[in-house]
Amino acid sequence: MKRVQFNSPYLPYLFLAPQLLVIFVFFYWPSMQAIQSSFYIEDPFGFGSTFVGFSNYSDSLFNPEYYLIAKFTGIFTALVTFFSLAIGLLLAVKADAVIRGSATYKTLLISVYAIAPPVAGLIGMMFFDQHIGPFVKLAAVFGWNMQVGINYFDTAFAMVVVSVWKQIPYNFIFFLSGLQGVPVSVREAAYIDCRSGIRRFWTVIMPLLAPTAFFLLIINVTYALFDTFGVIDVMVKDKAANNPITLVYKVYMDGFRGNDIGGSSAQSVILMIVVFAITIIQFRFIERRVHYT
Amino acid sequence: MYRTKFADHLVLIIGALFLIVPVIVAFMTSMHTAAEIHRTGLTLMPGDHFAETYTKVLTQQGGFTGQITGARMVLNSLILGLGFATGKIILSMLAAYAIVYFRFRFATLAFWIIFTTLLLPLEVRIMPSYEVMTKLHLTNTYTGLIVPLLASATGTFYFRQFFKSVPEELLEAARIDGAGPIKFFIDILVPLSKTMIAAIFIIMFVYGWNQYLWPMLMTTDESFFTLMRGIKQILQVWVGSQIPDYNEAFALAVLAILPPVLIVVVFQSWFIKGLTESDK
Amino acid sequence: MATIDISQVSKIYADDVRAVHSVDISIKDGEFIVLVGPSGCGKSTLLRMVAGLETISEGTVKIGDRVVNDVDPAERDIAMVFQNYALYPHMTVYQNLAYGLKNRGTPKAEIEERVAEAARMLELQPYLDRKPRALSGGQRQRVAMGRATVRKPAVFLFDEPLSNLDAKLRVTMRGEIKRLQRRLNTTSIYVTHDQLEAMTLADRLVVLNGGKIEQIGAPLEVYHAPASTFVASFIGSPAMNLVRGDLHGDKLAIGPATLSLNGFAPASGAVTVGLRAEDLRPALPGEDVLPLKVDYVEELGAQRLVHGQVGDQPMTAALGPEILLSETMLLAIEPNRLHFFATDTGKRIGEASPRSFAKLPPLVAPVVMPTA
Q1: Which of A49, B79, B155, C138 could pair with B92 as two cysteines, CB 3.0-4.6 Å apart?
Q2: Which residues of B touch A193 (CB under 8 A)?
């Protein structure tokens, strides 16, 4: 904190009030509610709720369907995180190396950042549409009869592709910024010390990119777990039946479609714990983030 | 120094195409009629029905109650985006100012209260949030659309980082010059933060404009639908129709894409600065 | 160990901006060459072209017998010491030193041996396990030098390595670099803008200005016989006094003063005259006099810098502290210590006289003369 600070008795509270108020009403209150209702089963006709202890939790966790969805969520998250990070990094490395046209590349690669997940999902849907989608036609060439929206695997594939597509610009921006933060003279020293560009990348550049990469890892995992809601909702078209969905989508489905407030809340709390764990890891590691300067 | 090879450019070109082509195709295809699209598929070539389709999308009364037009949805998205960005900047600047520049008893507590909001994204507390809104009679209002989204820490953290980087000497000089906390804030800090404010505004506007889940829950009255909601609408109508209105869907998508992408591209350097200088 | 041949080398940037103009330098094996000049003179660019960090627009660079224009830096058998050390921040000192060798497939035992040797030479043993951020500037610089020496390259390249150090440290490190180079006898190119560093370290100096070579020569040569007014004013501290003068027959007129040259006049007409501050001394009775109207004096301890004017032209004299000062100092200079330059080109007129053999006049008691 700054050494020099004001000592006003009421001003800081005044300034903080709006933000805190909003947070209490729209964050803490609902969160408490969520935790509370996770221990109850609500009567579907609205006649009150019964305390059921942890049974909502066990019902969810030991439900084979839940397990399946959790499994898909895990794989989905891993794939989306991996590919969007890898492609983002590759493009950033190339964009950093190139001089001519770099501004154009940058602009083009960044522009997609601003596209919302549902819109990405919509466009993706078209590309994977049975009748008009080019990807479907391309896959047919290889003998793959793609049926997005019907076949579990095909839909999952499409979801991954669209989610990765949307996230690449974000990673690109951060990786490029990180690369440009590596001192030129260190790169030149490496250029003199090491013949192979690939070796230089792994032994000198990557370690110095590590803080950025780690930060992005957490952001991407959060993205895959939660922000892909829009993509999934659009591609699943409310027919969740056979289609792959993620845990967060199930929270929505059970809560809003299935009216299972208790179960939905329990799942919310489970996800809360997952996010909590991820954030703890992030902050512990970022605190211990190796500062080389 | 590093001799660029053709392969480098190739990678970049492929990457750029991968990202851009779908958007271009969406735009081009939107200019054809639905029947044409159904016949010939997606296309890179512009069509003749640009004006027709877009006017239709913008002005046609559609939806279940026949009240909502595309133009109205654009307006709603705009209100959401601008309202959210403005609200976020005001709230977080004030909060960050309080935390960084004041010594008071509950400073650490306030900081942690705000900080913990990072732990739970909205998707995890949608049910109860919706209930709270119903209780407060805030469903189907702009307030209900915008204000709850303000309950997050990102803006405050961005500004906190930024304020911490402002040299101490400025505050000391201001105090000597007789500026109290309010004067210091208005006369010195805010002008200094101009670029940061611009950058954060852009990021928040895009975030607000692109909101999907929350408006979906909050607005059942179609006159409040945002573009994102409209897109979901179109897909709901699709299910079971003979030839889906591909062109209108694409047109709507293009409308939904255009403002945020334009802003991000035109104000690229500010936007990137805001994004990267404030990684938590 | 290698010779370096820089032949007609130029660096041309977009829109025809030339940073280096057709430079020719021939460096002998084991020689310590210093490229010196003001900012923007092209010295760093030239060094980086030899290193391979900049492409060579025109001309060739040969290391040994090999033309290296298109050879990657890592294959040129060079090592470089950067101005800001450029140590790998995520590696320990040991790893920094070993990195270059590791990449070349040197066996582990040999790496350990060479690193130990370099660490010994540069007194780095206590720091081998530390990361660069835990080291002081001087220590980092030594690690940077160690990184260069372990490789035992054919050529050392130094890019203003001492600029980031404080004054006292700079003097110590200067000595260390000199000793190291002597010991290893590796051909070296050293870039600096500090003329003192250049003078003390070089076997030969290359004075650069605006991408062109002004003069190449041994330090004393360049000092005593500068080839142009640029070199004259750049080398030596305080800078050489450069004033307008007129040569008529055997006489030189500088403002109100007239000096007899005793046959040393190389030309006639208007010239630029160079006089080194330390070559000016109080005039003996009967000598031709340069009247210096004193403006202010800088005390350096071992000597005094007396700043003033001769006529309307500024001049500085370096005098011993025992010499009494007066409002107008009457100074004299040996004719063979005058330098003459053409007024238009700034180039030297006439041969340099055999300085090293010129004897200094005996130090006499100060003479106070009444002001004229």
Answers
A1: B155
A2: none
